[in-house]
């Protein structure tokens, strides 16, 4: 069916009445779904754009033993057990993983979803209370809402699909509505389902597993028989398994082949499940982890799932990452700093830990000023009676006497020196030894009659409760109103446990984790809206809550507590698969490195950290005068290149998870500036001559190496490439800066 023009704009979504086919498409992608016989909503295709679809790919029919009929349909060749579907309920002879499970008052949990109606709207509906991809105006996107209904009961599912006009992106989420007269219990509500036939297009998945100080290690695996799942059960998106996966083909490289990126815009428990069946079809389901989740849905109420972002490219993993980077940077991150160059900071954590005085801090600030660093961040230890991690979380007022002229004195000192002032907080936590806990022991999350488990000697506040959130928010507001603060690092240093809320009934305890997230998001929305001049940075013991949900409130996040340059290469490389560089903070720290004991040169540490939002995390007063000179040069250099690093296009070139070398590249929007980072991890006596070919340059432009003055055409850098320098020793890096020297530019 031809696309129709709407007010001069090509419609992004069409419905073919005769074939009952919905086609969402723009110049890059197509997403096709079809109402099949007996009103079952089938999935047909997601991928590179097709201009037309003539319903030639209707799912074939075959009578397969033990795959029963679609309920109430006599056709033995037509079964929900094999039909690729858009969103599956439970039962009805579909034995694959369900996306939605609902238990009714009488204990029954059969949910046989059938097509009911649809609407096509301009724009994108707002998901109230949840982070999401947004639009700037209604013409930017169109949304299809397809309503499914249980065959017997008035339980509805509104599947929402938004397609952007100029992005290879589909966003999905859904609302479950209970229009029966009884409450029902939602036991699982995935945000999306994608069923694949045996097309050979996708046979691998990339996930980002890890650990504290070892985040987002790229793991590429075949999709094999049975069920594979990638999930977090820790109450946060977690270090252990990031809330992103990519589907690829075994032949997909960084530059060629198909890839689908799947981001859950959520910071709590998540799961992605992939089930491959006997006929080589597979189903992918993702959303809030059903583990320890249930939601009692009252009559005439609805439940909104978090959103999923599906990004597509046929230009390999870099293509997919770039679509994803642009989407997260341009339509998920918000606020004043969304496109602003981020200040180069020095943070006192690894310089002093809890042990600091005004004198010490002022000395660091003086050095920072000398070195033209732009912001000083006072980390943990400034509040309550906090001299170690044993106390004071929950007491967000300053530690009287620890800083001679108080917090305001430090803030003023920093400002007088012309730097910005940043501060660390950890609002979701409470120490047993705190005024807050002494006054309100009932605020701590714990199971009735049991001692809650401690982690880093701290406990979690019950953020499902308004009064708990308000107590913390009031303290934070007082702090932000009384001291001039330009930046906040919002930390979270443990996983959730003892998940129970006294404010909820016994049948509602499965709601605690999701309500915690809703409470957290509400507080973040309030504070980031009311203090828009503050640059907010997310953190969770490094990158334990580095996810698309948090990015909606805070445009950058601490990537890892691991500041070892060598391990950082892998962490940053893995992170870049799913997140824009403007979100990824990276600091130079002291050697021997505090996490690994490794010694690397200041140059190597600087080169690696310049691959992100740059800063320092060491005692500047302990640097030698040569080191200070080198730091000053790094600061000056990063200021020159940061627009391209933070807002240019990023390409991964050589993968450190696979070899002894790594390289990546940044190209400015106008292709005038190019930054090439190369690294060789370990030396050997008879080294190979490694080479690298650049990408994304203008073929005709001439590019000059800003250090040695050599000139190359974009074409030769991309086709013939360069040798790595003849590195000597372990952990060597080079950061080569090219500028176009074309006439008139
Ligand atoms: C964990 C963070 O990742 C560190 O940078 C530091 O802020 C500590 N917490 C402070 O407790």
Automatic annotation (TrEMBL):
Enzyme Commission designation: 3.2.1.22
Domain of life: Bacteria
Enzymatic reactions: Hydrolysis of terminal, non-reducing alpha-D-galactose residues in alpha-D-galactosides, including galactose oligosaccharides, galactomannans and galactolipids
GO biological process: carbohydrate catabolic process
Enzyme class: hydrolase
Residue span(s) of domain Glycosyl hydrolase family 36 N-terminal: 41-298
Protein's recorded name: Alpha-galactosidase
């Amino acid at each position: 069916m031809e696309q129709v023009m709407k007010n001069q704009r090509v419609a992004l979504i069409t419905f073919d009445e005769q074939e009952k086919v919905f086609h969402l498409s723009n110049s890059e992608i197509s997403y096709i779904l079809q109402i099949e016989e007996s009103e079952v909503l089938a999935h047909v295709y997601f991928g590179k754009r097709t201009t037309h679809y003539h319903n030639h790919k209707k799912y074939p029919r075959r009578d397969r033993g033990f795959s029963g009929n679609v309920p109430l349909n006599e056709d033995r060749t037509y079964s929900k057990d094999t039909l690729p579907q858009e969103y599956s309920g439970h039962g009805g002879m579909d034995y694959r993983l369900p996306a939605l499970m609902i238990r009714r008052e009488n204990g029954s949990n059969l949910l046989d979803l059938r097509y009911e109606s649809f609407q096509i709207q301009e724009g994108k509906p707002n998901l109230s209370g949840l982070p999401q991809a947004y639009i700037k105006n209604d013409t930017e996107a169109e949304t299809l809402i397809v309503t499914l209904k249980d065959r017997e009961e008035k339980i509805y599912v509104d599947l929402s699909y938004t397609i952007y006009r100029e992005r290879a992106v589909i966003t999905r989420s859904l609302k479950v509505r209970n229009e029966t007269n009884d409450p029902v219990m939602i036991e699982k509500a995935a945000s999306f389902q994608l069923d694949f036939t045996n097309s050979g297009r996708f046979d691998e998945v990339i996930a980002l597993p890890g650990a504290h100080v070892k985040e987002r290690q790229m793991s590429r695996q075949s999709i094999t028989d049975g069920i594979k799942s990638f999930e977090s059960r820790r109450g946060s998106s977690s270090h252990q398994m990031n809330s992103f996966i990519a589907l690829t083909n075994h032949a997909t490289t960084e530059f060629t082949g198909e890839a689908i990126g799947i981001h859950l815009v959520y910071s709590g428990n998540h799961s992605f499940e992939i089930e491959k069946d006997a006929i080589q079809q597979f189903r992918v389901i993702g959303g809030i982890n059903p583990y320890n989740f249930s939601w009692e849905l009252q009559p005439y109420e609805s439940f909104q799932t978090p959103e999923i972002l599906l990004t597509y490219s046929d230009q390999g993993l870099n293509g997919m990452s770039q679509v994803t980077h642009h989407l997260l940077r341009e339509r998920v991150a918000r606020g004043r700093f969304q496109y602003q160059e981020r200040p180069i900071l020095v943070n006192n954590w690894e310089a002093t830990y809890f042990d600091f005085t005004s004198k010490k801090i002022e000395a660091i600030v003086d050095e920072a000023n000398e070195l033209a660093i732009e912001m000083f961040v006072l980390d943990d230890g400034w509040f309550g009676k906090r001299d170690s991690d044993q106390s004071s979380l929950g007491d967000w007022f300053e530690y009287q006497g620890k800083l001679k002229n108080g917090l305001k004195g430090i803030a003023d000192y920093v400002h007088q020196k012309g730097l910005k002032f940043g501060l660390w907080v950890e609002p979701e936590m409470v120490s047993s030894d705190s005024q807050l806990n002494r006054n309100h022991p009932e605020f701590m999350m714990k199971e009735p009659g049991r001692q809650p488990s401690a982690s880093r000697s701290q406990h979690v506040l019950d953020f499902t409760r308004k009064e708990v959130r308000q107590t913390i928010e009031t303290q934070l507001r007082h702090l932000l109103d009384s001291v001039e603060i330009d930046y906040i690092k919002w930390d979270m240093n443990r996983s959730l446990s003892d998940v129970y809320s006294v404010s909820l009934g016994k049948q509602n305890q499965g709601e605690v984790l999701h309500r915690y997230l809703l409470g957290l998001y509400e507080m973040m929305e309030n504070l980031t809206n009311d203090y828009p001049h503050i640059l907010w940075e997310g953190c969770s013991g490094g990158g334990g809550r580095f996810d698309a949900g948090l990015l909606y409130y805070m445009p950058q996040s601490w990537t890892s507590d691991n500041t070892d340059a060598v391990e950082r290469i892998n962490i940053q490389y893995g992170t870049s698969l799913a997140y824009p560089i403007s979100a990824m903070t990276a600091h130079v720290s002291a050697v021997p490195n505090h996490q690994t004991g490794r010694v690397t040169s200041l140059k190597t540490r600087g080169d690696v950290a310049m691959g992100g939002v740059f800063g320092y995390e060491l005692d500047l007063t302990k640097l030698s005068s040569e080191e200070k000179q080198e730091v000053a040069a790094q600061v000056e250099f990063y200021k020159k290149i940061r627009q391209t690093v933070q807002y240019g296009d990023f390409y991964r070139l050589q993968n450190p998870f696979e070899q002894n070398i790594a390289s990546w590249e940044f190209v400015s929007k106008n292709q005038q500036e190019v930054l090439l980072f190369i690294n060789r991890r370990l030396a050997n006596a008879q080294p190979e001559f490694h080479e690298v070919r650049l990408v994304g340059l203008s073929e005709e432009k001439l590019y000059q190496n800003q250090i040695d003055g050599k000139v190359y055409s974009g074409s030769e850098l991309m086709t013939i490439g360069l040798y790595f320098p003849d590195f000597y020793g372990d952990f060597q890096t080079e950061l080569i800066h090219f500028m176009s020297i074309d006439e008139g530019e």
